[in-house]
Every structure is written in C-alpha cells, then in structure tokens.
Amino acid sequence: MSDAQEQIEVNPLDTLASVISSEASSHINRISNDYGELTLHTTGDDIVALMRFLRDDNRTQFVSFIDVCGVDYPGNEKRFEVVYHLLSPKHNTRVRIKLSTDEGTPIPSITAIYPGADWFEREAYDMYGILFTGHPDLRRILTDYGFDGHPLRKDFPLTGYVEVRYDDEAKRVVYEPVELRQEFRDFDYESPWEGVDYILPGDEKGNV
Fold first, then answer.
1. Mind spelling out the 3-state secondary structure of 27-50?
2. Largest CB tally within 10 Å, which of 10, 147, 198, 205?
3. pLDDT in tens, 174-189
C-alpha cells in the first residue's frame, strides 16, 4: 500500500482527537469516538478554556456554535448533563462536549466565546433549572415568567403545578393551583368494538 493510500484511509476524527488530547488534555477527562462521533468529556471548571481552544486553534477552528441542551438523569449524583455541539466549517468536522452538574452548582456561561449560546443557555435554565454564571440575561425563555418548576425534569408532574387563565373581572392573567375536574378523571376503558353497557349520548335515537 502506498503512502498516499494510507493517508486517505486515516480517520480525520482520530487525528482531531489526537490533536485535542495533546494540546488540551488538562481540560478533558475523557475522549470517546463512537459511531463516527467525537465526544469530549469535561467539567464546569474547564468548559470555558476548552471552548476557547476549540474555537481558536488552527487545527480545530470550531467557530460555528450549533446548540447546547440539557439531559436529566435523576438517579445520578449529578443529575444534569449539559451537551454542546460545535462545527468546524473549514475542516467539515463536528464535535460534542459533555459535562455533568447538579441542581445547585452553576457552570460558566460560554456566551463570551459563542454569543449564539445565549438563548440556548436560557432554554436549559428554563426547562431544567441548570444555572449558568456570567450569562448576560439568565431568565425564562419558553415558559411564562410566573411558571413554577422546570418542565423537562423527569420528576415534573404532567399536570404542572399551576394553571393560567385570564380573569375578566380582575382584567389580568391569574395563576391558580391545578384543579383536575372529575369528568376528566372518569375514563371508560371498555373496548369500543365490544360496546358498553350504557347508552351513549345520541345513541337513543337509533332505538326509536
């Protein structure tokens, strides 16, 4: 096999992993390259330095921020996983960065490096309650300002904690505890193919 053929068969992700491992090892706990996807595992203390390296180094040039999202694992000591995705248009390469945190430990915002992370970090805060220090405007973005809780946590009740309605007398939106009315809890589990033992509204016309 010629040198040219060997060079063609080199996996670019393996080369990228080698570069990152040699130049930013102090900011990475582990690197995994599974299913053709490169993932860097880091910590909140190292995320800013790692992101800056990935953006600025000529061998990486991950200048395009794609997104950041949260994942909830309630059984873990650090229940939240924060996942970032970056793109290097020059090298046509993507990378994923992961770190773990808990409900009370904030992680540094990366908005100073990637301004596009602004609304994504707000969404992670709104949906999961993940805190970001140094964010210019960390407030809810999808739910209402008076919303109680974080709806994508796995322990969040399907009904929520409060319900919102417009009070015509008060001329304003009011928040009240969720009230499930009984008719919405009275389910009929009979098979529609077998029929039921009572007359449904409208069926009495067929017996005339």
1. HCCEEEEECCEEEEECCCCCHHHH
2. 147
3. 888 887 665 555 555 6
